[in-house]
Amino acid sequence: MTSLKVNSISPNLTRRLYLSALGILGLSSWLTPFSAGAKQPEAMEAIAKIVGSNAIQNGRVKLVIPPLVESGNLVVLKVAIESPMTSTDYVKAVHIISEANPLPNIFTAYFTPRSGRAEVTTRVRLADSQRVWAIAQMSDGGYWQGYADTLVTLSACTEMI
């Protein structure tokens, strides 16, 4: 019995090998984190409610999440905002927004000049692979943002509310 030839370009490629290669390519594209998820509009609405008509600048906010997590139940999240934390120039709040969780607002941390540094390390639950934003509200009324993408292999936050 001879193997079925797929095309004349690669005569040694069998149908089974061809389908296996397609399956691997399909799986790898499925595992890649998407920058636009199904719930991204809700995340953008949450950000718009926070900043209003103010412009958001990139930079000064460093958000760190592992790029690949086995379970979305306990994901370490670290955020640090560059600021002198003086009485005239400090971070008032940092808002953490998720594009794939049932509720986009994960949490908000508030700071004062007496905080010393605008840094937070915590654990959060993530429902799926997604982009997470950190929006820093400054004392001068400005907003800065940073974001990180993560791939979650076992989802959390999927219970009905």
- The secondary structure category is alpha+beta
Uncertain spans, ≥5 residues at pLDDT below 50? 4-9, 24-38
Compressed to H and E, one letter per element, the order equals HHEEEEEEEEE
Distance between the termini: 58 Å
Number of strands: 9
**Rg computed from alpha carbons, rounded to a whole number of angstroms:** 22 Å
Total of helices: 2
Main sheet characteristics: 6 strands, mixed
Shape: globular
Strand content: 35-45%
Helix content: 10-25%
The whole-number mean of residue pLDDT values reads: 82
Helices and strands, with pairings:
Blueprint: H1 15-31, H2 40-51, E1 56-58, E2 61-64, E3 68-71, E4 75-81, E5 91-98, E6 105-110, E7 118-124, E8 130-138, E9 143-154
Parallel strand pairs: 1-9, 3-9
Antiparallel strand pairs: 2-4, 4-7, 5-6, 5-8, 8-9
